[in-house]
Write a structure and sequence with these properties.
homodimer, two-stranded antiparallel ribbon, 13 strands, about 30% helix, globular, AB_hydrolase_fold (chains A, B), chloroplast (chains A, B), phospholipase A1 activity (chains A, B), Fungal lipase-type domain-containing protein (chains A, B)
Chain lengths: ~475, ~475
């Protein structure tokens, strides 16, 4: 893993939002956030900055320092590194998820939070997992997103799936970044594109009032909302919704680092359906969650969205922008998934149609800045790719690595391994002799016991994956539970 | 691995053949073998027998001691163990074969001969590999049997495939068996049943005169004969045919152990297409190869055939019986492969048809004793199996383990692991929570190098897999090369 010397949030959070309202009501439900970030926030970090001063000076002197898009054309090398870093966090969700229906723990995370990155071979990644996030499949709205064991009475509830994690930058990384970064990574679908079909059946927009939204005309995809807000009291892991688990954990973390007077950032990452959850939760956090903690109001929130579908209507988009949430939307122009929902009703629809409908309500809209990549530009990628490969996250990270701006030639910069293109896809040209879809565990996780029998081992430390008592405590503090 | 206390060959080789001719001409090509094995051969072993005396006495006193079929009904427990042992030797060929076209070594054996069994987790198996056998795809008659790397200029010739091995029982096993056992294992097709189609196109019977046969009416499947006899001088590994490699190695080994006055047996094993090669090579060895070494004439030859197709015509069958080669033909009655070639013209064809054709020439015929098993008898096996699973070798070994004779209830005896049913198939009932086709190497063999790049590692010791100079030397001794 390449260690970075620069604070990513320097790019993403320094632009003060316009049209901000600052009501006096401080209730967490009603409060709009004041996002007039001080221009000098980088200087207020409590940690010493290492090796970053010269580059900092460069940006501070630049007139474009607050213009996010100016970092894309041409592509800023440090932004590129950060995009790849957060992409790897999203990729880690796929690699750690137990989606083997023969496993008794199918639906859980295969590795314990304490050794998450190490167990995935991401040594010295610079972050520590603080909490896992789970979702229940109560509504059955996106059935193919969820997976369960064929073992009906196994130790893991078939109603609950591990869906992501919260991690915090360690001291060394914090020093480099210039702030304590709370990263939230949402898992996408491991069952490849089966959910795509589902998605087309569940384009139903519903009001976001389950979240902190006060505007009933803000609508989001029902399926995403359900994954984020459903709960199932029958199981410890789904006693609280993903939303509640996340907000409680953020309350806990921001309190800890707030008391230490550390500068904090929140970065949310996800691929595919995970991108939708990233955007939805970013909205929710910005709109509601953190405002009851007065000293946390200025935490910049940004989203690294990879190959994400649209999440909400144009009102949702407008509101997200107003709240100052920064989204960088990375996608492959040949991938169809970012076009759902909203093949016909979206931000590019003709102005005539826009006049007929109430477009801010009924049109789905993408959010944030675009980083549109094209896999045909890479000389390492096969000429013809199947749909799942075009949607592949590792492909995107490869394209980011070789991107220098529109019209520029593809040229890899970080020395990122080309073999990763075939880790979960069939993308790299055959001449590089890397087998397609090579990521697999030895013997599907079976171990030979001393008696000679092959068995799937018991999962150690699974009881440490969630602390419901913490969730409850912090939900009370947030006023989300009485 | 269960260690056996009894000589398998006590069962298979003690029956003297009938109608044997004993010509005076001792030329290896023309000689017919004298297979009147002494009834007391078990007592002449040069190694002390351990723990076997009581069971030996049992058989010596039995009037059925020479009746092979009497060991099947009811199934003799020690024969069962031996069948499983040789089945595992055939299975080892699948697990060690590099059939990944992305590997530079595709077509070779993944593990070096010195550590073959250990590397496959078969510690203390009791045999040591003495030589690997290779075949070239010169005739292209059974193309799907062969596999090659997509790397056109790799270190391994695309024209050569590893096809089996010769192993010798170690001293401990030799003491248990009562003789030095030379085991020959032939690989079947790893590409599952794709070759089945090929086979149907290559039913062409050809004369076995490429072997030592003097009878032009003895015919065998052209495809099998080609795999066994083709050579390609362009590569060190195919400079000699599989046949020449095998005969040379047997000449070398029998000389070594013959000089030590050890009693020797030859057991040939193979699954599917490997079974065909086992039967073909058994015929060839019996007919020709060893007779130039006077002191080797009495070596009993037996074949453990698993799920094998027919190999030759009725004349071939008759000749094999006359030569005293014992074949135990183990198969699943629901498997279609043992029915090819010869759906219409085979040993069960109506007597009318037999009169119209010269049936000894034009009818394919199975050889040896049948051990017909039925997967529907096992309560552990799924009710519905796909064709490749019905043909699966691990399924057969499971069925052998539970077989006690016709009409008896299925009951596992050795404690053989049920999980092995799903090692390469989808056979075990889901309730046992063993994923189907679980046998796979971590990350398809890719290793992360210190620089962070994933690569297929170089194969170590591949140059030790064959000793062409040995082959040449012993072929000269056999008169097969001048």
């Amino acid at each position: 893993m390449i260690k970075l010397n620069l604070p990513f949030h320097a790019y993403l959070h320094n632009k003060p939002p316009t049209k901000i309202s600052t009501p006096n009501n401080r209730s967490w439900r009603l409060l709009k956030r004041d996002r007039s970030f001080p221009q000098t926030s980088m200087a207020t970090t409590t940690k010493p900055m290492k090796k970053t001063s010269s580059l900092h000076q460069k940006w501070k002197g630049s007139k474009d320092q607050n213009d996010f898009s100016s970092l894309l054309e041409p592509m800023d090398p440090l932004l590129r590194s950060e995009v790849i870093r957060y992409g790897e966090m999203a990729q880690a969700c796929y690699e750690s998820f137990d989606n083997d229906p023969y496993s008794k723990y199918c639906g859980s995370c295969k590795v314990p939070p304490k050794t998450f990155f190490q167990d995935l071979g991401m040594n010295d990644f610079g972050y520590d997992i603080t909490s896992y996030i789970y979702s229940s499949n109560t509504s059955n709205l996106v059935p193919k997103f969820f997976t369960k064991s064929i073992h009906s009475d196994g130790p893991w509830s078939p109603a609950v799936n591990w869906i992501g994690y919260v991690a915090v930058s360690d001291d060394e990384t914090t020093a480099r970044l210039g702030r304590r970064d709370i990263a939230i990574a949402w898992r996408g679908t491991v069952t490849k594109l089966e959910w795509y079909e589902d998605l087309m059946n569940f384009l139903k927009p519903v009001s976001a009032q389950k979240l902190a939204s006060r505007d009933p005309k803000i609508k989001v995809m029902a399926g995403f909302l359900h994954i984020y807000t459903d709960k199932d009291q029958s199981c410890m892991y789904s006693e609280f919704s993903a939303r509640e688990q996340l907000l409680a954990e953020l309350a806990r973390l921001t309190m800890i680092y707030g008391q230490k007077k550390e500068e904090i950032s929140i970065t949310i990452t996800g691929h595919s359906l995970g991108s939708a959850l990233a955007i939805l939760s970013a909205y929710d956090i910005a709109e509601s969650g953190l405002d009851i903690l007065d000293n946390m109001r200025d935490i910049p929130i940004s989203v690294m969205s990879f190959s994400g579908p649209r999440v909400g209507n144009t009102r949702f988009q407008n509101r997200l922008e107003l709240l100052g949430v920064k989204v960088l939307r990375v996608f492959n122009v040949h991938d169809k998934v970012p076009n759902v929902p909203g093949f016909f009703l979206n931000e590019y629809t003709s102005s005539l149609a826009r006049h007929i409908f109430d477009w801010t309500t009924w049109f789905y809209s993408h959010v944030g800045e675009e980083l549109a990549l094209d896999h045909t530009k890479s000389p390492f990628v096969k000429t013809k790719l199947a749909l799942p490969s075009k949607h592949n996250l590792e492909l995107l990270l490869h394209l980011v690595d070789g991107y220098h701006g529109k019209g520029t030639e593809f040229c890899l910069t970080s020395g990122r391994d080309k073999a990763l293109l075939n880790k979960d896809g069939d993308i790299l040209k055959g001449e590089y002799l890397i087998p397609p879809k090579w990521f697999q565990v030895e013997n599907k996780g079976l171990r030979k016991k001393p008696n000679g029998k092959w068995e799937l081992p018991e999962q150690k430390g699974i009881e440490d994956h969630l602390r419901p008592e913490d969730v409850e405590l912090h939900l009370r503090k947030l006023g989300l539970k009485v």
